[in-house]
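Human: Note token order:
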Amino acid sequence: MTSTVKDNDVLSVEQLSVSFGRSPSVQVVRDIAFSVRKGEIVAIVGESGCGKSTTGLALLGLISDDGAGVHGSIRLARKDGQTVDIVGMGERKLQKIRGNDAAMIFQEPMSSLNPLFTIGTQIQEALSVHRKMSASERADEALKLVSMLGIPSPQKCLQSYPHQLSGGMRQRVMIAIALSCNPALLIADEPTTALDVTVQAQIVDRLKRLQQDTHMSILFITHDLALVAEIADRALVMYAGQIVEEGPITELFGRPLMPYTQALMRSRPRLGDARHRIQPIRGSAPNPAALPAGCAFHPRCEHAVAGLCDVTAPTLETTDDGKRQVRCLRWRELEQQVHCTPEVEGQLK
């Protein structure tokens, strides 16, 4: 199925919903819409269970549960200039797109790499799917890829098995496989979660450099706000399967409008401020099968008003300057109370 997207968009998502089960089904992603422009890094951020990883899987047609339903539109601009809609596309056509036009790296590389084959064999297999190359050309390209990602002793790495590498090295290998066919869009689903802070910084820095060198687009899925501030141009905040706020990083971090986004900011540790106490978000994320009436965040929101927030479901509104979107019934009156904190200003410089 072909469709159209804006000239500058590599990905355009409209009214995307994902549900699981039957009679009744449970919606875990609820009518979301967003786009990723060419050469842009967009982050999806939120707590575990908010639907962000499910969204990432849906974008490449990887929701394989027989009882799952994916509805809406996922329009992807292919490298050949054609635009296709992923929703409803057959597996054979999807295989031509995965890795070639859009690729994905996952949270735990050990479960994605085959323990029975060497790293070199697995990178060369990825190359053989979409690129017409001889065996020697594939071997040379595999060496080039691992070298590009800063893996020490690249030839030794290619001859190694996954269990012989550290977690950080395995994740770099997964990035090499994802980039092997020069995709226009890279979806990175919590790629640094299982890694220590030092290795996290190295992976994020490497992704930023690769994006600058190749001008590819990146959709970075994470729960880590510090990483979002470090890597992204724009962010989508998800809660209970919906986008609740969206905007440029400097605006979103400097002046969050949605009470949930504000609560996320307060729950972060602040380096260099011994007096600051982390303020956890009270309560827990709602069960997708039993969402509260009205605003899904109202049971945890310190600004919720009885008879309003627990009755009326807010829509996603665009701010007057057109730069941001926010899902809150009271955001305009609360906006005057929000200001940029010094530590956020320093992090965004």
Observations:
- Residues 258-270+291-348 form one domain.
- The longest strand covers residues 9-20.
- Residues 197-214 form the longest helix (18 residues).
